[in-house]
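call fold target=Type VI secretion system tube protein Hcp
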Amino acid sequence: MPMHSYLRIDGVAGGSTDSGYEGWIACDSVSWSLHGAGSPEGLSEIRFVKPEDAASPVLARLCVTAASVARARFDFLRAAPEGSLVKCYEIEVEDVTVAYVATGPRREEAMMETVVLTFRHARLTSSPRDGQPDRAN
């Protein structure tokens, strides 16, 4: 079952035109790691791959200036049996820095970017098949 992933970062407009996610950043893939208080720098990270879009120059500028952003949120959706999209997972992060941006072509498609965000605080929310949210803070 295919997943759909979207990202909203404070102050960064993305290129998505999908219903309910207009102006968000559409992500092709997302992975994350969480580190406990014992990690030396206390930062965790989220890595995502996306097509080049309106957010690209802003993300690059945030990366080279090391400016932090208050919040970002990823929404993950899956197709329901009747074909609609249902949010199944959400990650909200705070004290966010764009740590890495790499751009290059992918086959015959548009330019793609790999971006790494580091953050200090996260809230993960999953929605099991019964539709009741399950929060982990």
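return ok
The chain has one domain: 3-136. The radius of gyration is 15 Å.
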